[in-house]
Amino acid sequence: MNTFGHLFRVTTFGESHGPAIGCVIDGCPPGLEIAAEEFAHDLQRRATGKTRHTSARHEADEVEILSGVYEGRTTGTPIALLIRNTDQRSKDYANIARQFRPGHADYSYWQKYGIRDPRGGGRSSARETTMRVAAAVVAKKWLAEKFGIVVRGYLAQLGDITPNAFDWNAVEGNPFFWPCAVQVPELESYMDALRKSGDSVGARVNVVADNVPPGWGEPIYGKLDGELASALMSINAVKGVEIGDGFASVAQKGTQHRDLMSMQGFLSNHAGGILGGISTGQAVTASIALKPTSSLRLPGQSIDIDGNAIEVVTTGRHDPCVGIRATPIAEAMVALVLIDQALRHRAQCGDVGEVSPRIPGMDVGAT
Amino acid sequence: MNTFGHLFRVTTFGESHGPAIGCVIDGCPPGLEIAAEEFAHDLQRRATGKTRHTSARHEADEVEILSGVYEGRTTGTPIALLIRNTDQRSKDYANIARQFRPGHADYSYWQKYGIRDPRGGGRSSARETTMRVAAAVVAKKWLAEKFGIVVRGYLAQLGDITPNAFDWNAVEGNPFFWPCAVQVPELESYMDALRKSGDSVGARVNVVADNVPPGWGEPIYGKLDGELASALMSINAVKGVEIGDGFASVAQKGTQHRDLMSMQGFLSNHAGGILGGISTGQAVTASIALKPTSSLRLPGQSIDIDGNAIEVVTTGRHDPCVGIRATPIAEAMVALVLIDQALRHRAQCGDVGEVSPRIPGMDVGAT
Amino acid sequence: MNTFGHLFRVTTFGESHGPAIGCVIDGCPPGLEIAAEEFAHDLQRRATGKTRHTSARHEADEVEILSGVYEGRTTGTPIALLIRNTDQRSKDYANIARQFRPGHADYSYWQKYGIRDPRGGGRSSARETTMRVAAAVVAKKWLAEKFGIVVRGYLAQLGDITPNAFDWNAVEGNPFFWPCAVQVPELESYMDALRKSGDSVGARVNVVADNVPPGWGEPIYGKLDGELASALMSINAVKGVEIGDGFASVAQKGTQHRDLMSMQGFLSNHAGGILGGISTGQAVTASIALKPTSSLRLPGQSIDIDGNAIEVVTTGRHDPCVGIRATPIAEAMVALVLIDQALRHRAQCGDVGEVSPRIPGMDVGAT
Amino acid sequence: MNTFGHLFRVTTFGESHGPAIGCVIDGCPPGLEIAAEEFAHDLQRRATGKTRHTSARHEADEVEILSGVYEGRTTGTPIALLIRNTDQRSKDYANIARQFRPGHADYSYWQKYGIRDPRGGGRSSARETTMRVAAAVVAKKWLAEKFGIVVRGYLAQLGDITPNAFDWNAVEGNPFFWPCAVQVPELESYMDALRKSGDSVGARVNVVADNVPPGWGEPIYGKLDGELASALMSINAVKGVEIGDGFASVAQKGTQHRDLMSMQGFLSNHAGGILGGISTGQAVTASIALKPTSSLRLPGQSIDIDGNAIEVVTTGRHDPCVGIRATPIAEAMVALVLIDQALRHRAQCGDVGEVSPRIPGMDVGAT
C-alpha cells in the first residue's frame, strides 16, 4: 500500500538513507506541460536545512524525470520521478539500530516485519513525503489549468501560539508559513528556546482549496472528506483531521452550523465545502494536528532489541517541530485527493452537464 | 465507491425509502459460525424509534442471509444480507423534492448526478449505516474469536456536556451510550428541551479497540490510522477524527506526548495504539466529531430547484442529535478496518512469526 | 473477488440452491432509463428449460430492482438486482455432498475453504452467470445509447461441427445461437444423440462488438484485450480465449497478419480491433473455448471425502453442452469490460478531443 | 493501469528510448534474501542482441536496487529497481514519428492520448517487459523457497514448426527455448531465411508451474485462470491464451476431458491444474499465441499523421519473431500471478489448515 489514489495513482518508494527516493505517477492526463524545473519551488518549501528551525540535513532534491514526458508534455504513460539522496549520515543511527525510540515507528515496524532499516527512520522518515510533494506539483498544475483551483495552506498553531491576524500574503514570507507577519520574531524566539531545551512541540496546519467545482466526491465510502481524512492522516505525525468546523461542531447547534444558501452564494462555510461527501462549490477546508517529534535529545525510558530496559537519547538531525514544514505536504495530499476525485467524477458523471441552479463559490472567509 | 475494504470488502446498497437496504460481504474467512439472529443486538443499538430522543421511524431491521452461509457457517463466498424497509413515509418528503435543505446533501447530490432520490434523503440517509453495523457483526465476531479483540464505544460529549466519570458498565445501560449513569437524567432533560426548541446539537463519540496485536497497518498510504480516519469520516455528519490524543497533541511537548516503553507495557497511550501507521499492541483509540443534524423545524434560508429564494422548514422524522445513535456505527467502522488490516497483514507477513521483544498491551487508561 | 470492473463495478452473490442470487452495480452513470422488464430478454436467452437441449431446471428469473433507480432512471448510486431461486432440487445432490466429481470444482473448493455448499454446485454453478447477464443489460444499454455499440455473439463450433455459412439474422432464430439456419436440424440430432449417450461436448463462442471507438483500453496491464481475456476466462468452463486471429497468428507471417490502413478504413481485421491493448475503431472480436460439462451420467473414477476410491455418477439436471447457452454470457462479459474501459478512458483522457486522422470503422467481415 | 497484482503489486515505468526503465514491487513479504546479481540470469534469457535471430539492440540491463532491501533482505517496503537504457538509437525512428505502422500500436496510442513517444515504440515497446522479468525474479524466488514451485516455459511452435520430441533439458540449451535439440539447426535456417525475406512469423509458448498447492485462486472474477489469461494477454503480441487443453476442449467429449481422480493422483491433466478457478494441486499449464512482429522492412499501405496515404517501411532494429524471447516473459507473468494469489489465499483462508483428503500432484505429462 505504497500507492495513493484510484485513477491518478502515486506510488512512492525509498528510504531516508537509501540511494534514492522516487515515485511513479500513473493515470496522469496526457498533454500537460511539465518540466523538471517546476518541481523545485514546492520541494524547497518542504526542504530541511534552510533555517535553524528545521533539521540540518541538506538535500539538493534534484528531480530527474525518467519517463512519461515527451517533448515537455505528459504522454499518459507513467511518470517516474527520481531524487538521489546526497546527505545521509547513517553512522548517526548506528546506536539506535538496536534500540526502540519511544513515540517512533521503530517498534511497530519491527513487530510487523521482523526486520527494519534503522538508518534515519528508513521508510517511516518524513523524507518519503518529498515525493508526495513532487507528485502533487503535477496535480496542482492540472487542477489550476483546468479549473483554476488553488490549494494552499498555512501554519495555524505552533504549540499554544495562534495567529493574531490572517493574511495569505504573509504566509510565504516566513519559514513557518505563518499568516501573521508581526508574530514571526515571537515564533523564532519560541523555536530557539525549544531547540535549546532539547524538547519538541506540536502544530496545526490548515489547508484551503479554492474553486473546487460542486459534485466532486463519491458518497458513502469514497467521500471527498473521507479521502481527505486518510490522505492527511497518512502524513507523518498527524493525529487528527478536521473538515470545516471539525470538532467545534460538537458544541454547535444546527442553526449555527448549517450553511444557509442563496443564489448569490452560501452565507457561511461551516461545512468546509463538503456535504454528504460531495463538494458544494465552496472552498474546501481542512485542518490537521501534528504531534511533537519523538526524536529528542532528552532521555526517555525504553527497551532494546534484547528486551533490556534502556534510556534512549536521540542525537541525529531532527526537526523540533515537524509542523513547520508540513504545510506543503498537507497541500500536496489535498491536491492528490482532488485530482483523483476530479477524474473519477468525470468518469461516472461525464454525461451530466452543468446542473442548474448553481450557486457561485462566494468567499465567506474560509479561514 | 460503495465498497469498503480491500480484502474484507463490504458493499452496501439501498435508499432510505426504497424497497430494501442490503450489503454484500466479500472475502470473509470461511468456517465462521453466523446466524441471522446474531445481527439483532447491534442493529437494535443503532435503531431509531426506541426512545423519544431519536427519530420516530420504527424499522424491524430483520436480516435475511441470502448467500455465503451453509449449515450455519461462512463458506468463503459472498455473504449477502438483506433488510426490507417497512416504515417509509415518503409523502413527508414531497415538498422537499424541489427544495435544497441547508447543511444537507440535497444540493451536492443534485450537482453531481443531475438527479436525486429525495425520499428520506435517499442514499445519503443514515439508514445506509444499518448495513455497516450488520456487516461489522461478522467482523467483530471473527476479531473476537481469533484475537480476543473487543471494539466498543461511548458518547464522550453531547453539545457542551462531558462525562463526569467513566464506567464501561454504564455505557450500555442508557440510550445515549453515556459512560456516567448519574448524568443520564441531565441528558434527558437536555434532549427534551432541544427537541422542543426545534434545534439540533453536535456530539463526540469515542471508540476503543482492545487486544489489537502489534503489526497491523500498512505504512505510508494504507496506515491503520489513515484508514480509520476515512472509515470514521465516511459516517454521516462526521466532521473530525482524532487518533489517540488527536488535536491535544498540537500544544504538547515531545516529552509529554511520547509513550515511554518498558517490558511491562507502555507507560501511557497518547499515540492511540498506533505508531508509523502500525499498531503497537496497545488499545487503539479514536474519537469523532458529529455535527448537529441539518434537518430542522426552524426555518432556514435556501433556494429551490428553479433558483428561487425560499425558507426551508423540515418536518419529517429526524434525530435532534445523530451522535446519540452513532456509537455502534463508529464501532462498526473500526471493526471493518481492523479485520481488513488483519487479513492484509497475514497476507504479506504471514511468514514472520511472533517477533521478540514483545511488550504486553497493558491498559493505561485509554479513555 | 466477487467484484468485476474498476469503475463500473459489478458484485454478484448467491448460490445455485440458495434463497436468491443477486448483484450490485456500482458506478453506473446517472440518468439512464431502466425498467425491470428490460432484463427479461437477455435472461431468457441465457435460461435453461426452454428446449430439451439444456438443463430441465426452470427458473422464472424475475428481477427486482432494490435500489439505485428513481422514477425509472439510474441515480448514480448502487443498483441492486435480486432474483429469487424457485426451482432448486437440492435433494438431487445429497449423495454428491461427500463425493468429488471429476472435472468439477468440488475438490478445489474443498481444498481452498475446507467447507463447500454442494447443492447444485453452490457458488461454482453457472447459475451465478445469470447476474452477469442482468448487469450487462445496463451496460449494453448505455453503450448503445452513447456510442451505438452493439455486442453480439454466436456459437461458432459445437464439438466438431462448424458453420457452413454465416448470417447474423439466423443466430437468434434457433436455440443454439447458430449462424447458419439450414444446419439447425443437424445440431438437434447431434444433441439428441449426445444426450442419449450420457456424454457431453465442448463448444466455441464468438463475440463481436461493433462501433467501439478508438482509444479504449489501458496499455500494459489494463489492456482492453487483457481484460477481455480475464472476463471471458472467468466464465464457467472456458479454457481458452482468442482476440482477432488468436492462435491462427502462430503460423502467420507479418505481411499476412498486419492490418493495412487507409483513410477509408483498415483493409482487414486480424487484430480483432485492438493494437497495443487499445481499441482501433474496428470491430472488437473475441472467441472462447468451452470445455465439455463434467457432470455426466457415465460413471467416472474418483474419491470421496474420506479418501475412498469411488465411481461417480451424476444424476441431477445438467447441460450436455454448456456452450449452447454461453453466447449471452460471453456478450455480457464483453459489454462489462467495454463500459468499464469507456469510463476509465474518459477519466484520464477526457481532455483529449477527437484526434485526427481518424479511420472509419469499416466492416471487413469480422467473422 | 501500469500496476499488476492486488497484494504483490508491480508497477513498471519507462519508454524504449527514455533515460531508464524501472519498476516498484510493493507488498513483497519481508525477510527474503535478494541481491542485484540475481536479476542477471532471467534478464539475459530475455535480452536481445545475443544471437542474430533477435534484434541487434544490446542493453546491459544492469539492475540497481533503489529501496526495500536492507542488508541483503527485503524489508516489506517497496522495492524499486532501475535499469538505465544505454543503446537507444532514436534517430532510426525520426521518419516514423509522423507515420502509423500497420499492426503496431502507433495509431491506437495516438487516438487515445493525442500524443505519443515514437522513439522505439515508446511505452508500447517490448522493452517494458524487461521489468516484468526483473520483478518476477523476486516472485520466483519466494515461490520456490516457500512451496518448491518451479515456473518454466518453452517455445512450442515457431511458424508451422512444432517440436518432434520434448526434453526440459534441451530448452535452455538453445536460443529459442526449444525442447528438441536436434531441431535447432532447422530453426536456425528457418530464421535466417525469414530474416533475409524481411518478413516475420508468429509463435506459441507454453508455461508449466509445478508444485502449486491446491486452493489458490479466487472463484468467479479473480479466478486463477482468469488472472493468468489477462497476465499473459498483457504481453506484447499475444493474441490467445489457453489453460490446459484450451481450444482442443471444443471438440472433446466430457469423458475425454474430465480428469479422473485417485488418492495416488489425478489420472490426467486436461484441466491444466485449475478447476472452478482454483488450483487442484496438479501442474498449472498455459499456452499463448504470439502474432508475427508488425515492424517489417517489406512496405505496407498506411497513412501518415496528416491523413495522407503512404507506404511504410520499418528500418530500426526488430525481432523477426518476438516469440523467441517470450518464454521468460511468459514465465514472469505466471509467477507474478501465482505469488499474488498465494498471498490472497493466505489472507482469506489462513485459518484453514491442510484439508484432507489431499491428492498428490503426480506428474501426468503436463506437456
TrEMBL record, chains A, B, C, D:
Residue positions binding NADP(+): 46, 52
Lineage: Bacteria, Pseudomonadati, Pseudomonadota, Gammaproteobacteria, Lysobacterales
EC number: 4.2.3.5
Cofactor, how bound (note): Reduced FMN (FMNH(2)).
Gene Ontology cellular component annotations, sorted alphabetically: cytosol
Sites where the protein binds FMN: 123-125, 236-237, 276, 291-295, 317
Keyword ATP-binding: no
InterPro entries assigned: Chorismate_synth (IPR000453), Chorismate_synth_AroC_sf (IPR035904), Chorismate_synthase_CS (IPR020541)
Catalytic activity: 5-O-(1-carboxyvinyl)-3-phosphoshikimate = chorismate + phosphate
Any single Pfam family the record assigns to this protein: Chorismate_synt
Gene Ontology molecular function: any one: chorismate synthase activity
Job description of the protein: This reaction introduces a second double bond into the aromatic ring system.
Name of the coding gene: aroC
Alphabetic keyword roster: Amino-acid biosynthesis, Aromatic amino acid biosynthesis, FAD, Flavoprotein, FMN, Lyase, NADP
GO biological process, one term: amino acid biosynthetic process
Record-stated family: Belongs to the chorismate synthase family.
Listed CDD domains: Chorismate_synthase
Subunit structure: Homotetramer.
Signal peptide, first to last residue: none
Pathway(s) the chain acts in: Metabolic intermediate biosynthesis; chorismate biosynthesis; chorismate from D-erythrose 4-phosphate and phosphoenolpyruvate: step 7/7
Cofactor: FMNH2
Protein name per the record: Chorismate synthase
